[in-house]
Amino acid sequence: MRIGLFTEVYKPYVSGVVTSIMMLKKSLEQLGHEVYIVSINMDKVKYEYDAKEKELKVPGFNSGLYDNFKLSSIYPVKCVNMIKKWKLDIIHTHTEGSMGTYGRLLAKQFGIPVVHTYHTMYEDYIYLVTKGHFDKPAKEILKYFTLFYCDKTVSELIVPTKKTYDLFKKKYGLERDINIIPTGVDTEKFKKSNYDKKEIIELRNELGIAKEDFVLLLVSRICEEQKNIKILINSMKSFSKYKDIKMLVVGDGPDLEYFKKLSKNNKNIIFTGMVPYDKVALYYQLGSVFITASKTETQGLTVIEGLSAGLPVVCMDDDSFKIAIIDDYNGYFFKNKKEYVMNILNLYENKDKYKTMSKQAINSAKQFSIEYYGKKILEVYDRALSNYKLSIVDKIKNKLKR
Prior knowledge:
Blueprint: E1 2-6, H1 16-30, E2 34-41, E3 48-50, E4 55-59, E5 61-62, E6 70-71, H2 80-85, E7 90-93, H3 98-110, E8 114-117, H4 127-130, H5 135-152, E9 156-159, H6 162-171, E10 179-180, H7 197-207, E11 214-219, H8 224-227, H9 230-235, E12 245-250, H10 256-262, E13 269-273, H11 280-284, E14 289-292, H12 301-308, E15 313-316, E16 331-334, H13 337-349, H14 351-365, H15 370-401
Parallel strand pairs: 1-2, 1-7, 2-4, 7-8, 8-9, 9-10, 11-12, 11-14, 12-13, 14-15, 15-16
Antiparallel strand pairs: 3-4, 5-6
């Protein structure tokens, strides 16, 4: 099968959506399929095509929206003939923006079905546009747009968690079938056995982390409005008498400097800044526990990465994490700072409990392998192709009846 994945963002940009698309591409290719990527060029205002990687980037322009988010023209004409030569069987869109629209237009032009994955809980981010004004009408507009985009223009709809499924079914009242398929993770990449001990020791020394330190690892985009990081930073005061409890913050974002200043008097909080994607898994080897207080995740891929590395997870009690975390089995949920501190100390002080949960973390991550992910997506593609062909036959029959 020849598959086109359309997305606003792709590597080297780091995000959950980018990770999801990278894992899907890798999985589908391992299963013997050809996969092409169409995305926006985030660095240059020009067309670029990597024939080896089958990646096409179209020029983008600043949208004026949050965090230098870029858009392309709705129909970049220069790319049409190139994409037509790919002879795609199906187009899978991963954005509700300009590239998603472009994918739909091409699918209609080429006579092939569209599958769409809804990655982002936009209601959690709407305040970034409205700044607290007119939230109610803005949410109604968002609902209308989302239902049109995810219902009327696609053959099949995919969501990664029941949290997103419930948004469509319970809040938006969508009646169509929805496929729940959690994003796959390259779980093997996060195993400690894949890394040279010397490499881990060198990184630990570079960051000022001792072998016996109990490291609370956060891998995240550093943005308070989205990730609720302040509760984790402030909680470090509760561990002041435990000199070997350290917090390692991996990632970059608009609030990185703010949190550095907030933590300047606490030497047990370490910030790495931006880390290249191919190096991120190495940093997981320094962690003892994976932590997150985010309430805006659709799935929370970093949580699954943490499990893959054998790290028990202590996370905010949010539905997005419940597809992976089982309380008191491979991690703990918390609702407030007090519960968070209690859960961390429970793992810190109870070594046997920690070892058991670490093993259970690794076992529970296996269900999120990229092979399983690709196979489930292919089932959706096959259904989309079959239904699309049937709809064409029905249209022909209706015309003949007239």
